């Protein structure tokens, strides 16, 4: 996909869930967001990747290079530039990303786990993008003045996508990222089913 058709993202931060130990979430939002409104994408990541991203965001200098620091050092040693990262797919609850690199002679696309690609992009200053399809499938609308009332217990699968998105936002704001990820999968399944029926 051409860069002009992609949506630029920025990293808001990474948080440890207080509901279930060992769970972390990386929160992204559209780069052209305003202080009062944004589209946000929560991505559940592993402990090692969460630590690596948090160390960089908090500007902590580890005693020895972490794995993603090693990648960046190798890039520099061999004249490789990470031009951008693109989160291009979301299937079965899993994000996929592509690292677009250039060594001065050739451009290469390297398939990558999203958490790894973002950890490296943060260290190199490379921009992060996603596709309109992934943004539509996985993001929710955040509003500073938004008020979301709790819903009566119902089957999540029976709720419309709009209500699922609101409920997902509630869970993210409460740092209940496992529940948010579950709803994210249901939204993707419902959206895929609607598209298949068209």
The CATH architecture category equals Roll
The quaternary state of the protein chains shown equals single chain
Count the strands? 8
CATH fold call: Bifunctional nuclease domain
pLDDT average, as an integer? 83
Decide which structural class fits the backbone. alpha+beta
- Fraction of helical residues: 25-40%
Number of domains as seen in the coordinates? 1
How would the global form be characterised?
globular
Can you tell me the CATH superfamily? Bifunctional nuclease domain
Text of the CATH class:
Alpha Beta
Number of helices: 6
Order of strands across the widest beta sheet? 6-5-4-7-1-2-3-8
Low-confidence stretches: 147-153
Radius of gyration in whole Å, from Cα? 18 Å
Notable traits:
Bifunctional nuclease domain, alpha+beta, 6 helices, 8 strands, 198 residues
Short characterization:
This protein is of the alpha+beta class. Helix content is 37%, strand content 30%.
Structure write-up:
There is one protein chain. This protein is α+β, with helices and mostly antiparallel strands and about 200 residues long. It has a single domain, classed as Bifunctional nuclease domain (Roll), CATH 3.10.690.10. It is built from 6 helices and 8 strands.
Record the SSE blueprint.
Layout lengths: L6 E10 L7 E7 L6 E9 L1 H11 L9 H11 L3 E11 L2 E9 L4 E6 L1 H11 L3 E3 L1 H7 L1 E4 L17 H13 L3 H21 L1
Parallel strand pairs: 4-7
Antiparallel strand pairs: 1-2, 1-7, 2-3, 3-8, 4-5, 5-6
């Amino acid at each position: 996909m051409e860069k002009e058709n992609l949506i630029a993202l920025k990293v808001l931060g990474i948080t440890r869930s207080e509901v279930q130990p060992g769970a972390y979430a990386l929160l992204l939002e559209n780069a052209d967001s305003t202080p009062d409104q944004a589209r946000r994408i929560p991505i559940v990541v592993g402990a090692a990747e969460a630590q690596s991203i948090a160390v960089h965001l908090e500007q902590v200098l580890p005693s020895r290079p972490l794995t993603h620091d090693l990648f960046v050092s190798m890039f520099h040693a061999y004249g490789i530039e990470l031009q951008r990262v693109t989160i291009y797919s979301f299937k079965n609850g899993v994000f996929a990303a592509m690292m677009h690199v250039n060594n001065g002679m050739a451009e290469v696309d390297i398939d990558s786990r999203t958490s790894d690609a973002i950890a490296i992009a943060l260290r190199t200053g490379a921009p992060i993008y996603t596709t309109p399809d992934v943004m539509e499938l996985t993001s929710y609308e955040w509003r500073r003045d938004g008020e979301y009332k709790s819903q009566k217990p119902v089957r999540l699968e029976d709720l419309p996508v709009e209500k699922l998105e609101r409920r997902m936002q509630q869970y993210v704001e409460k740092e209940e990222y496992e529940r948010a990820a579950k709803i994210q999968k249901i939204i993707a399944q419902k959206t895929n089913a609607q598209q298949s029926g068209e």
